Amino acid sequence: MRKYVAILKDKKKGELTKELLHKHVGHLQRLTKDRRLFLCGPFKDNDSAMQILICKTIDEAIRLVETDPFIKEGYYATYEVNELMEANEDNNWLMDIPVTEENGTVGNEGTLQQTSEMLNTISSNYILNHLLGK
């Protein structure tokens, strides 16, 4: 299974009803029960939100987003779905994959190997907590 990040955008502020909110939460609860939802929540900008979905294909992820009442009923006007290339210690922070190598060095500060060594000193928990705003 792969992870897909869905960004829900262009919120229609002032149009949220209790009924719509309950439908949306029910959708999230079903995704959680089916082990399809990894993480979700709104951004502080109050205009967009994120869902990280666990799916086999991008088409499945798009289908799950399109069945969200927030999308179906137009509370969020647009969305974007992209596959996440998860970086972590187990895969050397993606330093050795062709896409990263094709991008060349990481600026004038050093090579990809030097950057990899630096990233390996950072705790995975710190990164996750930082992303979650803890």
UniProtKB/TrEMBL annotation:
Sequence ranges assigned to domain YCII-related in this UniProt record: 4-83
Protein name: YCII-related domain-containing protein
Pfam families tied to this protein: YCII
Gene3D superfamilies: Dimeric alpha+beta barrel
Similarity comment: family membership: Belongs to the YciI family.
